[in-house]
Amino acid sequence: MKLLAADIGNTNVTIGLFEDDRLTRSWRVITRANATADEVAAMLTGLLALDAHRLDELDAIAIASVVPPLTETWERLATERIGVDPAILDASTLEDILEIRIDRASEAGADRLANALAARIEFGGPAIVIDLGTSTNFDLVDADGAYIGGAIAPGMGLSLEALVGRASKLPRIELRRPPSAIGTNTVHAMQSGAVLGYIGLVSGLLTALRTELAERSPADSRVTVIATGGYTHQPWLREVSGIDAVEPDLTLRGIGYAWSALRDRERTSARTADR
Description:
The chain is built from six helices and ten strands. The strands form two sheets. Strands 3-2-1-4-5 form a five-stranded mixed beta sheet, sandwiched between helices. Strands 8-7-6-9-10 form a five-stranded mixed beta sheet. The chain is globular and about 75 Å long.
């Protein structure tokens, strides 16, 4: 059984190949919201070929997307080129798989739900997932394993793009830790604000969220913190205290868990209907 999982974000599309419920390969490509089904097919064909796989070998596709135009494109690709009905993850499809305790469940991003599901299965609750991408998402799972919301902040790259875009004299810079917090030139000053400021944002929000989650949890509970997303490779992540695990493919694994649960639900329904 070969499952292709896709986490379609605003900056990148992260793609994973599961073989018999095990993630064996993952890729990351730049998001192009106006890409056609043919272009997506060509991209997937090339990626799969890198590891001697083919598009027509796929048995299933599961998608978590926050880019509606691409969701439709991937759906068309799955049905017309591969001949499978894709599983589109959202709050409604995950009913009875993940309890969602927020004001409006339909507003929860599919990637955030996938993170929560993976955290519950792999680490248990209470837990916090920090997803470092276009935005910085904090996804919280309580002691019962339910998704209870979290926080959304601008991502590091997004903040820097806004700064450079609105200040005509500021140059584009490399996102790296400066030699010191006191920048003695424009580049180092910007790096101090962008990188050290971002570390402060993540650390501060994490402290506040962890405190609230601990207060809502049984007295002997320990909050586990997992980092995932495109910026997990950055060396400055080590400066954020309290992170227990770094799992770049957590969202993909969450999509895989969701698809497996949906498959099991369908099999149970089919057996019940046959009786």
